[in-house]
Write a structure and sequence with these properties.
The complex is a heterodimer. By secondary structure, chain A is mainly alpha-helical. Chain A is built from 23 helices and two strands. In chain A, strands 1-2 form a two-stranded antiparallel ribbon. Chain B is mostly helical. The longest helix of chain B has about 30 residues. Classes of the chains: A mainly alpha, B mainly alpha. The interface between A and B is large, with 61 and 67 residues.
Chain lengths: ~500, ~160
């Protein structure tokens, strides 16, 4: 564990890379702040810029965006009561009342410290757990890998979106997208229907840019969305709040509640490590748990310190948690880490359990970049928060065409193929329809990245031994498959229960 | 309603994939050839889409009474202003991609930002100036960055 860190320090501790991470953090904070601009979008658009860099520098930049983005939502949540990203919904519950009570500076400072300290906690969890998991994963054969992917996909499908059926459909659709192009084992061209654009396959990143960036922009162009946005901006102008940050005093406040801080960080890290579940869920669960365990639960929602700490610690610690399966297993827990993995692939590095053994400097770099990004986040938030506020004033009609152009450039740069741009347009429309009808996009994206891995492992397993029952008789594989079935059954049971309750209330 | 349409489209997709998957040349070394995995996935997708369609039909029949009261004409009328900009942006993006290969990256990108920004924006004189400046700056900086630092060749078109 320490040799990995030392390698990481030597990779990252160069002025150039430190500055790159700083830049990433600033971009991330801005992305978290601007309504209609998500962290996933920012990370997708950062990727093409990192092609010219070496792998460690590129990944470091993206980790900076990730960490910054998780804390950017805090600002609008605390001052305006509007979550800048879905990850800061619970932050509005207590940080906003606190700033209404005349202490906006305190709310922000506590939030920043909670974000920072929880990142540190999740950092230690990451570096101590990830190597163990990957060592365990090295013992897995193709049977276990296949079952692991099955369980990851079912869990993603069950935690996101409004029904498990839609989640599973999105996941399967993603897998099918990935089957277009050359077959991973024999190289036969599949499902290209003699269309030139499809012959080389559908690149994962184009799917990602289309589904996460283009479709999100389209949603923000609907009239009802635009009216909501206008109203928000009007409110923004009214609230030229003056505030004083108190870095030292609030640090003591946060440190005086170690139970809430560490508890919420653990919750956040665990939720982050579950595929599909991320900051938006951790934020609310951590808040809820802190309220349950608190000595004064009645104070929650009135602007109490513990509420701010719990919610912000919950969402920021998901970063470290999310990196655990990404680094140790090559299974991304969210769209953001999926981009991270594809960035590694662009540089010819194969993610998976062997990553720590084969590329210890990259893994060490990821770990250390996370630590550096947390420090940068702390510093830039305290120094730059007043200037960041102004960015929310950038009007939508400027933002949309510029971001679309960046998407187009990002897609083009990837393979230098103009035909990919049509795929981008198609994916944007598909992603838009998916969001319109509440299919969540995360399973589709993870399906695209995991589908080929699942296929390769399945075929390897059957090639090694044509006996199908091995999936059920090898104990680890069986455990994974049972977990997959349980995750589906549990969600079905839960929806049934909530539906029944809703019916009772109506009657 | 929309879910049902999506479900039907997905079933059609699954059928296409399933029938296409049968025609790959069989490889000799394995029992699973290039088509086996996709056809299994297509089968599952069709099954789930069917469940989705059925459950939504059930809901639709349950809500039939409310539907009748809603006037289809006013509903369709409301649709256009709601999605006007979405449709416009999609169309302009398509034209942008199409023209980029003919008249080159720089000109089309500048035009795309100005036109889209103008239509989406409040259409004042000041606004046009701002958006034009932004269009120029964004296009030229990204162009120089990618051409010189990353050595990407953008479509140059007829004029350059």
């Amino acid at each position: 564990m320490f040799d990995l860190l030392i390698l990481g320090v030597s990779e990252v501790f160069q002025i150039r890379i430190l500055l790159i991470i700083l830049l990433g953090v600033i971009v991330g904070i801005l992305a978290g702040l601007i309504p209609g601009f998500t962290v996933a979008m920012a990370i997708v658009l950062t990727l093409p810029l990192t092609f010219g860099l070496d792998p460690v520098a590129g990944v470091s930049a993206m980790i900076g965006v990730f960490v910054g983005g998780m804390s950017g939502g805090l600002i609008s949540a605390a001052l305006l009561g509007i979550p800048g990203t879905p990850s800061s919904i619970a932050t509005t519950f207590d940080a906003y009342p606190m700033s209404q009570n005349g202490e906006p500076g305190k709310a922000l400072s506590i939030g920043i410290w909670a974000s920072f300290l929880s990142s540190i906690v999740s950092f230690f969890l990451l570096i101590s757990i990830a190597p163990q998991i990957s060592r365990f994963a090295l013992m897995l054969g193709p049977w276990e890998m296949f079952s692991l992917i099955v369980v990851s996909l079912t869990i993603i499908a069950s935690v996101t979106g409004d029904s498990i059926i839609k989640g599973l459909i999105a996941g399967l659709f993603g897998i099918l997208i990935a089957t277009v192009g050359a077959d991973p084992i024999s190289g036969i061209s599949r499902f290209s229907f003699d269309i030139r654009a499809l012959r080389a396959g559908i690149p994962f990143l184009v799917v990602l840019i289309g589904m996460f960036a283009i479709s999100r922009l389209l949603v923000s162009l609907e009239r009802s969305e635009r009216e909501k946005d206008d109203r928000k901006r009007q409110e923004d102008k009214l609230k030229n709040i003056k505030f004083i940050l108190q870095p030292l005093k609030t640090m003591k406040t946060v440190l005086s509640k170690p139970g809430t801080l560490i508890g919420s960080s653990f919750i956040g890290s665990i939720i982050g490590a579950i595929p599909g579940a991320g900051g938006s869920i951790a934020n609310i669960v951590a808040y809820d748990q802190a309220k349950k365990w608190s000595k004064h639960p009645e104070k929650f929602g009135t602007g109490c310190e513990e509420g701010v700490i719990a919610s912000e610690a919950g969402n920021n610690s998901t970063v470290g948690g999310d990196l655990i399966p990404t680094v140790a297993l090559g299974i991304p827990g969210s769209a953001v880490t999926a981009v991270l993995l594809s960035a590694l692939m662009v540089h010819g590095i194969t993610p998976g359990p062997l990553l720590i053994v084969n590329e210890p400097n990259v893994v060490g770099g990821i770990f250390f970049a996370f630590l550096v990004a947390s420090f940068w986040m702390l510093i830039t938030q305290f120094l730059g928060i007043r200037y960041f506020m102004k960015v929310t004033q950038v009007p939508m009609h400027v933002l949309v065409p510029v971001i679309i152009v960046l998407c187009v450039i990002g897609t083009f740069v990837l393979n230098n193929r103009a035909t990919d741009l049509y795929i981008l347009l198609a994916m944007g429309i598909i992603g838009y329809l998916f969001t319109k009808y509440n299919f969540s996009l995360a399973p589709a994206i993870i399906g695209v990245i995991l589908g080929p891995i699942a296929e390769v492992n399945l075929r390897r397993a059957v090639m090694a031994n044509p006996d199908w029952t091995l999936f059920l008789t090898r104990p680890i594989s069986l455990t994974f498959l049972i977990l997959a079935v349980l995750s589906i059954l549990f969600t079905v049971w839960q929806t049934y229960k909530t539906n029944a309750r809703a019916k009772r209330i109506i009657r | 309603m929309g879910e049902i349409v999506i479900g039907i489209l997905l079933i059609i997709l699954s059928v296409v994939i399933y029938t296409q998957a049968g025609v790959f040349p069989p490889t000799n070394e394995a029992q699973l050839n290039a088509g086996s995995f996709p056809s299994a996935i297509a089968f599952l997708l069709a099954l789930l889409s069917l469940i989705l369609i059925l459950s939504n039909l059930k809901k639709l029949i349950g809500r039939r009474a409310d539907l009748k009261e809603m006037d289809t004409k006013t509903y369709l009328k409301g649709l256009y202003p709601e999605y006007k900009f979405v449709l416009f942006t999609l169309a302009s993006l398509f034209v942008y991609i199409l023209l980029m290969q003919v008249i080159g990256f720089i000109i089309t990108t500048i035009l795309f930002i100005i036109i889209t920004g103008y239509v989406l924006g409040p259409k004042t004189k000041k606004d046009i100036v701002i958006i034009s400046v932004i269009a120029l700056v964004v296009t030229l900086t990204t162009y120089t960055f990618f051409e010189n630092v990353l050595h990407v060749r953008f479509p140059s078109g007829l004029f350059f």
